[in-house]
Design a protein that fits this description.
360 residues; mainly beta; STM4215-like; Elongation Factor Tu (Ef-tu), domain 3; 4 helices; 21 strands
Length: 360
């Protein structure tokens, strides 16, 4: 970033109670100085030093800002500078990750120019431009809250589609997946860390978060967590496994949402050979009816619909019907076959075979 670009950027960031005009050249200082019909504070931006690191991937630059502030506006200036300090955050500028430090603010002198009593201040800033991502300079946010972290490992799994030519530029997010292992210190005084800790100790599932890593944002779902407590003085941390959160298809049975671990639908057309009408000149195959069937595995969760399925499976009542709603479309079903079994975690589940009750 050259000095002119810096000046344009800081003109916007400084403006708060007062207007500021940052330039890389000396400005006039008189009562007629206006910006958009409003008076402004002139600021001179200068590059003091630019020191490239030995590895050539990091450059440390010192900038100096020189302010001329009318004494009558000095309290507003102090408030603006406090706001400027508080809002300075590390960010990605172009292809560089920039970390910022305001390390010196100096009152230089008081003088009079064009009948205006003013004070002159200098502010020195050190900006470090990193051409490669440096872990210690990385910023990770969850739901816009910056969180402390120890390690972050990102695996981007890209699908391989056999019928597409190599190097085909498609943007289908369903053919890629991110698996992120995020280790964060268990600082319960941190609001977001405490919220996540409460989440992993609850019985909820499908919890999503907006994860931002160095400005790259993705919606992820919490899949797994690990907390290791040690009896020594080591830091206790949480290791979170986060994966890409894809849109879900809503399924309810008799108006209840029940966990579905497997879903398979088969829509079959029954056909016959012959003339579809007397006007047909030749024999052809044509459809007669549509047969629908579903294979759905439900996990026991204490809902009344699970108990209904159990009673249907073990009971002697015939023609018990169910109302299935899939993404707003409704079907009336009958349970044709069912298998109740233990899951891998020792819980109970029922694999159900449903048929369309409206089909004779």
């Amino acid at each position: 970033m050259n000095t002119k670009q810096l000046a344009d950027k800081l003109t916007t960031e400084l403006t708060n109670n007062l207007n500021y005009s940052v330039t890389d050249d000396v400005q006039l200082f008189n009562e007629d100085m206006e910006l958009g019909g409003e008076p402004y504070v002139p600021v001179l931006a200068s590059l003091i030093t630019s020191l490239p690191n030995e590895n050539k991937y990091i450059t440390t630059v010192t900038y100096q800002l020189t302010f001329k502030v009318a004494v009558s506006k000095i309290d507003l200036f102090y408030a603006d500078m406090e706001n400027f300090r508080d809002t300075q955050v590390n960010e990605i500028i172009g292809s560089d990750y920039v970390s910022k430090v305001i390390y010196r603010e100096v009152y230089q002198r008081e003088d009079v120019e064009n009948s205006i009593d003013y004070r002159e201040f200098t502010v020195d800033m050190i900006w470090t431009y990193a051409l490669s991502v440096v872990g210690s300079q990385s910023v990770i946010k969850i739901d816009t809250f910056e969180i402390p972290f120890l390690t972050c490992s990102i695996t981007h799994d890209i699908g391989y589609v056999s019928n597409e030519a190599h190097d085909t530029a498609y943007d289908n997010y369903r053919l890629s997946n991110d698996t992120i292992l995020l280790e964060i210190p268990l600082i319960l005084a941190d609001t977001k860390v405490n919220e996540i800790y409460d989440e992993i100790n609850s019985n909820s599932y499908n919890k999503t978060y907006v994860l931002d890593i160095n400005g790259v944002s993705k919606t992820v779902v919490l899949k797994q967590s690990q907390v290791t407590l040690t009896r020594n003085g080591g830091l206790t941390s949480m290791i979170l496994t986060l994966e890409t959160a894809y849109p879900r298809v809503s399924i309810t049975l008799d108006g209840e949402s029940i966990p579905v671990t497997a879903y398979r639908y088969n829509g079959k057309v029954t056909t016959t050979d012959g003339k579809k009408s007397s006007l047909d000149a030749i024999l052809r195959t044509h459809g007669v009816s549509k047969v629908r069937s579903w294979s759905i595995t439900f996990v026991k969760d204490g809902s009344t619909i699970y108990d209904k399925i159990v009673n249907d499976v073990y009971g002697n009542t015939l023609d018990t019907t169910y109302e299935l709603v899939r993404d707003g479309k409704t079907y009336t079903l009958m349970l044709a076959d069912a298998v109740e079994e233990y899951t891998e975690t020792g819980d109970m589940s029922i694999q159900c075979q449903f048929i369309d009750y409206s089909v004779a």
